[in-house]
Design brief:
By secondary structure, the chain is mainly α. The protein has twelve helices and no strands.
Amino acid sequence: MDTIKVRLQTGTGYQGAMDCMLKTFQREGLGGFYKGMAFPLAATSVYNSLVFFVYQNFLTSLCGHKDRPDISDIALASMGAGAVSVSIGTPIDLIKIKLQVQTESYKKTVAALQKVGGTAGFLPAENLQMRSKSARNISTSSVAKLANPEVVLTGGAMPVRPNNQLYNGPIRCAFDTVKTNGLSGLYRGAGAMLMRDIPGYVFYFVPYEILMGALTPKDRKATWGETAFHSCLAGGTAGTISWAVTHPCDTIKSRLQADTAGKYRGVIDCVKKSIKHEGSGVFLRGFRVNALRGFPQSAALFFGYEMTMKLFENKKNTPTPVDICY
């Protein structure tokens, strides 16, 4: 669902979520839905640990000697977590998105490009003109199916993006990004991510804490089953609310990070050009998919968090930061 969301946000060749799903499956098979996910899955434990660590410690500090935190405490702790998370989250998202919007087959396309003079995933502008019948045949197979190409056609020219680059994995993607743009290249879209995550985590943790407070029994400790159900329900609801509210900022971030051609100079430039060429509705592309995926994603996250906290709580009789505040 995340791949569909990103492709709807950054591409123009899809009529909707279902059309995007069908085209992705037809061109790339089931593997197309999981492009770019290996690296985020490996790094997500570090990222989420940082978010919850910062949030919980900020919240504990803000509680002081209060019996329980109020909404402002939760909101401030959430904003702190959102601000700090960008340090790790931006490179993770950038690499993921670069791979997700790459609908071409790396091996097949590079092999085709090499036959007409391209190397390492590039087809130089001077080689766009087809010089042989075999090259023209190639254009009707693997290379012709590039997604959303800025096509350059001259006679029998191969339809590819000028300077289009393909990545065979997250390590190659990160290496080439640093090589081309320096370490700062990994933080492209960080400003948009701050715009998304600072309010986004407020709309994430505040609804979650309110719902958990309402669902948790007041006169006894919740059972394992109750904690599991409550965390899934509260976490899923909070995730849907957060992603729905921050979707326009998420779209801007995705478009900036998917832009390898330098089309956008920054957040404001991205907003202006996107509205000029595609209308204001561009910021709502993939909205339903994003809000829908937010439920199971966040339900699983908070379920894991609450179960882990409950496990440690049962192994030791000392109060946790949550117990101190609540």
